């Protein structure tokens, strides 16, 4: 995995919660449209023998294609949650100062001078720590098939 790929993945980490919230809103809008909040499309009987209004609405949703869309949204939310967990897990394994530098720079968006003061190293040393961390994260991401 290239350094750029690793940086892209790390830089995406703080945005994941917003992405998940966006997809959850999309899911909620579809569920509200059909009045099926919390009902799985897979629960609709295959023979079409649906007697209750919620079941009929779930059936309509499946027929319209929104059921497929809902499943895609749910899969994307699961993928994003897994990605967030994988990134956090890889960051946890970094040595303390590497973890701090990466977190401050990519997650918190701090400048090098601020980071250097915070960790008690020079800017150049902090950048070396970052480079070392990126190499470690690349190995970890490759081993765990982490992809944005």
Written overview of the protein:
By secondary structure, the protein is mainly α. The protein has one domain. The protein is 74% helix and 0% strand. Helix 1 (3-12) packs across helix 7 (123-143) and helix 5 (96-107) crosses helix 7. The radius of gyration is 22 Å and the shape is elongated. The chain starts with a helix and ends in a 5-residue tail after the last helix.
The rough form would be described as: elongated
- What's the mean pLDDT score? 88
Total number of distinct structural domains = 1
Tally of contiguous helical segments: 7
Order of H and E elements: HHHHHHH
Global structural class: mainly alpha
Low-confidence sequence ranges: none
Measured by DSSP, the beta-strand proportion falls in under 5%
How many β-strand runs? Answer: 0
CA(first)-CA(last) distance = 12 Å
Over the alpha carbons, how many angstroms does the gyration radius reach? 22 Å
Helix content, binned percent = over 70%
Please describe the biggest sheet, giving its number of strands, its sense, and whether it closes into a barrel: none
What does the secondary structure layout of this molecule look like, with pairings?
Blueprint: H1 3-12, H2 16-34, H3 53-64, H4 66-92, H5 96-107, H6 112-119, H7 123-143
Helix pairs in contact: 1-7, 2-4, 5-7, 6-7
Describe the structure concisely for a colleague.
Helix content is 74%, strand content 0%. It has 148 residues and is mostly helical.
